[in-house]
Design goal:
Blueprint: H1 9-56, H2 59-67, H3 75-87, E1 91-96, H4 119-122, E2 127-133, E3 136-146, E4 152-161, H5 162-202, H6 207-223, E5 227-231, E6 237-240, H7 242-248, H8 259-262, H9 267-273, E7 281-285, E8 288-296, E9 302-308, H10 310-348, H11 352-376, H12 380-395, E10 399-402, H13 415-435, E11 442-450, E12 453-460, E13 478-479, E14 498-499, H14 506-516, E15 520-525, E16 531-537, H15 548-561
Parallel strand pairs: 10-11
Antiparallel strand pairs: 1-4, 2-3, 3-4, 5-6, 5-9, 7-8, 8-9, 11-12, 12-16, 13-14, 15-16
Helix pairs in contact: 1-5, 2-3, 10-11, 10-12, 11-12, 12-13, 13-14
Length: 562
């Protein structure tokens, strides 16, 4: 029957560990037993040699070989048997130079030739070996036998039963097996503990399911439309899915890299690294508004999720502009109703000339303002933005001025980006100008083109930006607006750099858009009070045949018509 192989990873690991432990124990016993057997053999041969040397040193034996005959009751037999019984040897055999036995354990063998070659001891050499003879396998030693004059007169052969050596080896095996069983038990216990821990960590998942889970995780992470980045405890990137790579401009194989090495220093790096705490943190990366959440993991790392809120932010700002425009139009509706009532009253009083003058004056002011913007700004989106902002500014009792030097053709590469930049700057300027109470507050806009570069300036009569905040105001988290009804003690009234949760994206987005086109965004003080924001947008104009002379001609014609 084929053995059942466990399906769970922990069971497989346990089986493998038990097999490895058993193999190691068996190998250790084998490696220990082989040297032990060799040591026992060597000890037996040394003992046999010592007995043979002691026997050959007895002068009575050498004298008996020279003076008597080989008989069972001769002095040589009697002396060697005494030595054999005293030492416990298997046999002690004495032979003459012809190889004839003078002593033997079996008396019938006395007088016969030895069964093994005696030439080595008879030639003066000592011999140690494991060999088989008439008494079986034994550890034996042979030494030469000398007379009183030093001449070889025979040899002594001593054997120790090999079964006694094997018995000693077998006697040592129980202790070895006991140690091996203890080692095997400890190894099995450790294997079971590791298997249980592994089962808890893997939640009892079968080994075949792990590969499927990994495939599903990869498909899920790279298929969702939300960016995911995983970090290890040392801040190195473990995983980047496709959406996160797109949002941050990274490579999906950019693993084992430090975060600070691949993300420029700034708020985005601080949020990803956890140096900025909170949920749904906003940051701008590559001109995109991102919502970032960071979740620590049990091993000290973290998983960061990124959501692209650029389109939502732009739509929100367009909605804010539309809402402001609607409010302005509602106010204008009331104003037009008042004007219509005035016209109606003049008509009822039969003052027709005064009614005509009143209508002409009211319509002409608004038309002249819109025509002036359209004549200077040829792009319809930008000019519409300025017209709408002019209505909003009038509702807030702030004058929106378009500088006479404004010249902008209709050949823009990305008019929506320019609308985003200009709309954010005008909104902040209107808030600042309306917030500071003073005579005739205004916001002035200047747009012009130099080659393919668009330059714009927005200045206001607000409280201005302190020098210490002129860089921080362009970072995420800083806002030019305070929450309604709040006054922070650390910020004077009318200040621009108040931190506000969930806000402070507008000016940061302005700078990021400018940097995307290789331009700059900066702020300075306006002479007489207020702030001046200057933005350059290189490569924003598509080359074309329109010239400044044509624009001047249009302006001249319009001036004459007025």
């Amino acid at each position: 029957m084929r053995p059942h192989w466990p399906q769970r990873l922990s069971g497989q690991v346990l089986m493998v560990q038990l097999a490895i432990t058993t193999g190691v124990v068996v190998l250790a016993i084998s490696l220990f037993t082989a040297p032990l057997a060799r040591e026992l053999d060597a000890e037996a041969m040394h003992r046999a040699l010592a007995i043979a040397q002691t026997t050959a040193a007895d002068p009575a034996i050498a004298r008996g070989l020279q003076t008597t005959r080989p008989t069972p009751d001769g002095p040589v037999q009697q002396e060697t048997e005494r030595i054999r019984r005293a030492t416990g040897a298997l046999y002690v055999v004495t032979m003459d130079v012809r190889g004839v036995r003078w002593s033997h354990t079996t008396e019938a063998e006395i007088g016969r030739h030895v069964s093994t070659d005696p030439s080595d001891p008879l030639s003066g050499h000592e011999v140690k070996q494991i060999d088989s003879g008439t008494l079986g396998r034994s550890a034996r030693a042979k030494v030469p036998l000398y007379d009183s004059s030093g001449a070889v007169v025979g040899a002594v052969s001593v054997g120790i039963a090999y079964d006694s050596v094997r018995h000693r080896l077998v006697g040592a095996l129980p202790a070895l097996l006991l140690c091996a069983a203890a080692a095997l038990a400890v190894g099995a216990g450790v294997a079971v503990a590791v298997s249980r821990r592994l089962r808890r960590r893997t939640h009892g998942i079968a080994f075949s399911d792990i590969s499927a889970l990994l495939d599903e995780r990869e498909a899920m992470l790279h298929g969702i439309r939300e960016g995911v980045i995983a970090f290890d405890p040392r801040g190195r990137i473990r995983l980047v899915n496709d959406e996160a790579a797109r949002l941050l401009g990274l490579d999906t194989d950019m693993t084992d890299d430090d975060l600070d090495a691949v993300i420029p220093s700034g708020r985005t790096a601080d949020v990803l690294a956890g140096r900025a705490e909170g949920t749904d943190l906003l940051t701008v990366s590559g001109g995109r508004v991102l919502v970032v959440n960071r979740m620590p993991t049990a091993d000290g790392g973290a998983v960061v999720s990124l959501r692209d809120r650029t389109e939502l932010e732009l739509l929100g700002r367009e909605l804010d502009s539309t809402q402001g425009l609607l409010e302005a139009l509602r106010a204008q509706g009331h104003e037009h109703a008042n004007r219509l009532h005035t016209v109606l009253g003049l008509l009822e009083l039969r003052r027709y000339d005064q009614a005509a003058d009143f209508v002409t004056h009211a319509v002409g002011d608004h038309r002249s303002s819109a025509e002036e913007i359209a004549e200077r700004v040829h792009d319809p989106l930008v000019s519409a933005l300025l017209v709408g902002k002019a209505v909003v500014a009038a509702e807030r009792a702030v004058e929106l001025r378009v500088c006479s030097r404004t010249r902008l053709p209709d050949r823009l590469v990305a008019p929506r980006d320019l609308v985003t930049v200009l709309g954010n700057l005008i909104d902040n300027a209107l808030d600042a100008a309306a917030e500071k109470r003073g005579p005739a507050p205004f916001v002035e806009v200047e747009l012009w083109a130099e080659g393919a570069t668009v330059l714009l300036q927005v200045c206001d009569t607000g409280p201005g930006v302190p020098p210490a905040s002129r860089e921080a105001i362009f970072t995420e988290g800083y806002s030019t607006k305070r929450p309604v009804g709040s006054v922070l003690p650390s910020q004077p009234a009318g200040g621009r750099d108040t931190p506000a949760h969930g806000r402070g994206i507008g000016l940061s987005l302005v700078r990021r858009l400018a940097e995307r086109y290789g331009g700059t965004a900066r702020v300075a003080a306006r002479p007489g009070g207020g702030a001046v924001f200057t933005v350059t947008l290189p490569e924003m104009i598509i080359p074309g045949p329109e010239t400044e002379e044509h624009a001047d001609a249009v302006l001249t014609t319009a001036g004459e018509a007025r």
